[in-house]
Amino acid sequence: MTDPGVRCEQVWKRFRRGEHHDSLRDFLPALLRRGRTRRTVAREFWALRDVSFEVRPGEAFGVIGPNGAGKSTLLKLLTRILRPTHGTVHVRGRQGVLIEVAAGFHQDLTGRENLFLQGAIMGMSSAETSRKFDQIVEFAGVADFIDTPVKRYSSGMNARLGFAIAAHLDPEVLFVDEVLAVGDLDFQKKAYARMRELVRSGIPVVMVSHQLDRIAELCTHALLLDHGTVVRQGTPQECIAHYLDPDRGGFVPHGDAPATIERLRLEGTGDVCSGDRVRIGLCGSIGEDGVPEHIDPVVVLVRNASTGAFVSAIGTSTSDVKLSIGPFSLEVELQMNVPRGIYVVQAVVWDRRAERALGAGPSLMLQVLEGVPFVGPIQLNGRMLVA
Amino acid sequence: MARSRTREGLRSLINPGSREIPLLETPMTATDQTGAAVPPPQAVERVPIVTALREIAAELSGYRNLLRQLVIRDLRVRYKQAVLGAAWALFMPALVVLSGMLVRFAMAQMTAGSFDRTTVAALALKGLGWGFFAGAIGMATPSLAANANLVSKVYFPREMLPVATVLAQGVDTLVGSLLLLTLAPWLGVPLSTGLLWVPLLLALLFCLTTAVALLLSCANVFFRDVKYIVQVLLTFGIFFTPVFYEPAMLGPTGAHLVMLNPLAPLLEGMRLAVLDGQNLLLTLTAPSPRGDVAAWSPWYLAYSAAWALGGLLVSALAFHRVEPDLSEYV
Prior knowledge:
The structure holds two protein chains of two kinds.
Chain A: E1 6-16, H1 24-33, E2 44-55, E3 60-64, H2 71-78, E4 86-91, E5 95-98, H3 111-121, H4 126-140, H5 155-167, E6 173-176, H6 185-199, E7 205-208, H7 212-218, E8 221-226, E9 229-234, H8 236-243, E10 259-267, E11 272-273, E12 277-286, E13 295-304, E14 310-315, E15 326-335, E16 341-351, E17 356-357, E18 363-369, E19 383-386
Parallel strand pairs in A: 3-7, 3-8, 5-6, 6-7, 11-18
Antiparallel strand pairs in A: 1-2, 1-4, 8-9, 10-12, 12-15, 13-14, 13-16, 15-19, 16-17, 16-18
Chain B: H1 5-14, H2 49-62, H3 64-81, H4 88-111, H5 117-140, H6 143-146, H7 148-151, H8 160-187, H9 198-222, H10 226-237, H11 251-258, H12 263-275, E1 284-286, E2 293-296, H13 298-329
Antiparallel strand pairs in B: 1-2
């Protein structure tokens, strides 16, 4: 068994919320008053509760979750910026960190001076920085301004130089936060390619991102956090599907739906390219009272995971599928005429009159890779058949 | 029993656990009064002093390049911003010497005492020493808080920031010292064996300054008004340190009292060793109207050395203790 490069064991992290005395002027009188005043209750909250995982060489670990889930706190614990309240964090080897990379820049110093300083902050020796100097400047595309004070840089140049330095460290463990929103389109492409190269070089990687398609593409394992608790841990597909659970889409559970949908399953292999046809198997049952006219027992919705926007819907009424009382089994075929990205396919019981879903049906995640270049329009040519 | 928040905060400040905390084999079922899960209790292991010192040493040597780069940064920024450029390094000590000359001249007028080149040399020597201390502390105190964006986003041994400002101030003082060296023949500084004491005194001064810098820089993270208090103390501290005057001028008791300032024996020892060629292992008594004054005693030096070395040890350990909390509070 290989030694994990990154290990978190039952990690808890507590923060104190609200004001604490941060000046002596407040603190000393408070110290004197202590006996006479009412005790104040420390308002504290747990940013992380009992998080455990391991990342081995060759694995890329994606951490997803809504804002405030504790993702950045987790990354700060891994990079030793914060210390866990309980539990242990162990990271072996030299850390490469792609987190708000221009943090160490001093505005009055030139790009060259900052490059050496930032290199040192990230743990590079002077010789190493000198050796990589040209490469970094070239990558950042700031060659003409390298002897100009950083305060005259555009924010894009600043971020580009920061990323370039971080990206040229030879790390043994890599941590990635949301950093790719820097620079213009060309630079973003270059940065993403560089990141992919680092991730695929076989070192342990921990990556935090809201760009779920990137997590799905780059990561081998994933963790879904919410309010500091691990909601799900497993493959990126599982975690992303869970994250994009219909409950989050605003569908409330509904007790008395006339039909239930039990299972949704993707037929064939998982690799789907733009323009490919996918077949989805579906089964459920119709209640004994039958289904009223205005209700579709099955509607399959397709949503873009990054934007949450609905791409397509296909239902029993639009496909002229009649289902009788008792169990049923359907097959849905969709042609994924969509841009690359992550899509959520979800089956619900749909009330046409109220225009809402009756409860949350099962869902699955579809990752669409670049295939035939997508030029639009989005038309999934959906077909629904009784299997 | 729940203590007040203040107390709780202070206790966690002075008694944080070690970085690697061993876990107890406790099932994860505990809850607090509100029913929310709480972590299992675990033993807080105290790190032995030797281990802590070894950690500090390992971190400092591992990040040597960062220390160098931070010193270079501090110097560059200082000289870039100042219109006077390198003259900046002389500005502060020159001001101290001029004020001292004014004070001493006034004293000489009143008591018909002497005011000669040796007085100026003494002022310059002690002024440089004081300038180093005051400059370094003034820069080091806000060093962590001023680099909040760095401290909260990247890990590196936090000691680097205050220590780098002390070193940068050392370079500044070196420039001033070189000027003093060129003026030495004119100021009547003799070549004597007393000069051999200078390296030891400088080393102790550096240790003392670093100790104070470490303590104040992290105190300033937890209490943001520390830097204002420090500025006031540094402004008036010069009067409680024998820079403009000699301790003997304060009489038998006064001399002893002023020598309680750990900085005093270092500066006074510097003056005696360099200008009078005094062997600091020997006692020196000066006559005064109110009896003999112990102008120098080897115990003074031992006292300062204890402060400098003990202070450095204590402050380095204290800093190491609170280091993991700095990024949370900064």
